[in-house]
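In this section we turn from sequence analysis to structure. A common task in structural bioinformatics is to predict how a protein folds when a small molecule is present, because the ligand can shape the pocket around it. The inputs are simple: the amino acid sequence and a SMILES string for the ligand, here zinc ion. Study the lines below before reading on.
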Amino acid sequence: MQLQFLGGAEEVGRSAILVNDSLLLDYGMLTGNPPQFPVGSVDPDAVVVSHGHLDHVGTVPALLSGDDWPAVHWTPPTYELALTLARDTLKLHGGTYDCPFTETHIRRMTQQSEPHAYGETFEAADHEVTFYNAGHIPGSAHVLVDDGETRLLYTADFHTDDQRLVAGTTDRPDADVVICESTYSDVEHDDRATVEERFVESVRTTIWEGGTVVVPAFAIGRTQEILMVLDAHDIDCYVDGMGTRVLKMLRNYPDYVRDAAALKRAKSNARIVSGRDGQRRRIARQNSVIVTTSGMLSGGPAMTYIPEIRQDPTNKICLTGYQVEGTPGRELVERGRCELNGGVVPVAARAEMYDFSAHADKHGLRAFLTDYEDAPVFVNHGDRCAAFADELRADGYDASAPAVGAVVDV
Ligand SMILES: [Zn+2]
């Protein structure tokens, strides 16, 4: 089996791996200014997508040009999320180099879509492929690929612990070779219940003090998780941004969430903001909790809420995930100021960070890999892939961290 790492190697973003020159696993986008796409030019017979995050699926529509379009295999929620993301990219960047596809390509995605449930083996580019629940977001999958000689397990993004939205991964299919993500290979997450408790306590305190809490959250997975946390603790809230569309969409996929009834309750508990800035400013002045995109304050309705609440120290901004270096969210946490609509402004409202991660931490990754001690392990999707591969090698694994562009035979 031959593997070509076209992106997402020694980095996070633009994940793409070409198997035997015919089967493509993921085709993502690295967001940034400008965004980056997988290297090389590919013409796969089929594409298999692990899950509906931009860094895994963002560039898939661009594969559907010319006359010969590959089939695109994914779970039903991943297909829906891919459509949502593609339309959003087109809306934000259509007609520029930052968006390598058009509305026509997005329509072809629907024509070429072949959805599969977890555990169902299907054929793609002469390989047998099976999805297993990866416990990361609804519809996320580990991808097992069998070319008749070698079984490859591509873990993609996964979590070993339960979240409210999805249960942690438990499937460990037999494999001869593993490609493993490593996002949090040097982090130990605090216990989720403890993080929730601290978050809820902080939100409640601010509400009691008469303040407003803005909770920036990623649209896919995180927004819904936070709404479930707030509902479980009887805290009323507003929800705004692309996460509301995902929330509505997930109603149609009860089998892909951990507790469909709890998600439904969370949806009823949250008041959906329909999107006018006048309404947003009124809500921001209320004594309220607002869950909104974007998760790192780089856009979305948060850009309307933060200016409204920033000057009052009674107010609070509760960030709910890792803030990438160089993003306004990181600037806010580290320096108490924020780039808003073109200018840097001081923020008197208190900023706090809560680690609601959807990835396995150091212990989760190691526990997962104990089932694959005899398989070569290729570490990808992280800021310290080589260091994690070194740690694995020190413990007897045959581990390495290929660079973008690397070709390996296994
Ligand atoms: Zn992901």
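Residues 6 and 40 are 7 Å apart (CA to CA). As an exercise, try to locate the residues that line the zinc ion site and compare them with your own expectations.
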